[in-house]
Each structure stands twice: as structure tokens, then as C-alpha cells.
Amino acid sequence: xxxxxxxxxxxxxxxxxxxxxxxxxxxxxxxxxxxxxxxxxxxxxxxxxxxxxxxxxxxxxxxxxxxxxxxxxxxxxxxxxxxxxxxxxxxxxxxxxxxxxxxxxxxxxxxxxxxxxxxxxxxxxxxxxxxxxxxxxxxxxxxxxxxxxxxxxxxxxxxxxxxxxxxxxxxxxxxxxxxxxxxxxxxxxxxxxxxxxxxxxxxx
Length: 204
Hints:
Elements: H1 3-11, E1 16-17, H2 18-28, H3 37-49, E2 53-55, E3 66-69, H4 71-81, H5 94-104, H6 110-134, H7 140-168, H8 196-203
Helix pairs in contact: 1-2, 2-3, 5-6, 6-7
């Protein structure tokens, strides 16, 4: 996520200290994304060099230095809010890369690897579901973060289910071939397996 723009957004409410910005950032994001105070000050220094924030003269080198957003910073924040995230090319998803690598490795049970990751993701979904159930209904910040994570995790589990279905459709390897040296199936790609996470949680 863009820490620099999140800090700019907080500064639209008024002048604030660096430590105050860190505390408010964590509170506004439901304390799901902890932020190092050193990262806050490094980001503020960069924003100041860019002319997006300005600071007062008192406590120049200390924790009591106060920052405020500038007109340039406000324009940059407005631009960022209205710019859709870049969806092309696809991000280098580590899990996708792991599966692609495993498919080419002889002697690797790729479907077992898929299930290992699937179980871990379902555990994370259950954790966020419990967090949501225990949260204050009026805590909008936490609710938004939890909903986003649940939808994201469910989409990854659906991809794992689709990958597992695709692997099941592969033809058996030719005699003498390495286990993963197989040709592509001629048929269409398998469809996602539906909302598997929701079914699994319902069974629990």
C-alpha cells in the first residue's frame, strides 16, 4: 500500500507529529498493518523534499516536529485517490510463482503443495472472521480492512481450487517421462470450484 499517501490523507485533518501519524495510521487501519516509526519519519522527510509536506522550525531534529500538508501535497493526494491501481502486467504473485516452479520439478507432488497453502489460507480466513465477529460494529476502519482481506483470501483459495482441478485434468505422463513433464490438456481450462472457503467454514 502507499504509506506516503496515507500520511498525506491524515495530514488533511491538520498539523500532526510523526508519532501521532503512526498511531492514527494503525488505528484507522484496524491495527492490521503495523507501521514502524522510523518508516514514518523517513517517508515524511521524502514528502518534505518533494514539497508535499512542510514542517515547523521547532523540534527540527526531534520527535516533536510538526508536519502539515502543502497545496502540492493536496494535489498529489487527489491525483492518487482518483488513479486506479495499475492492473497490467499482472503482479508477481509469490504463490503463483511457487506453483509454476513446482509443476516443472520432477518428483514434486504439486497438488499436495496446493493443499498446504489452501489450509493455511483457510486458517487465516477463520482468524479474520473471528476478528470481525468480535469487533465493534461501529469500527468502520477495521470492518473495511477485514472485509477486504476475507475477499482477497477467498479469491486465492478459489485460484488454488481451480489449479487443483486443472492438474487433475492433465493426462498421465508418457512411459519413462519425469512425473511433471506432461503435455497440456486439449480441453478448456477448469472453472473455479465455487466458494469453497465458505463451505469449509460452514462445516467447521
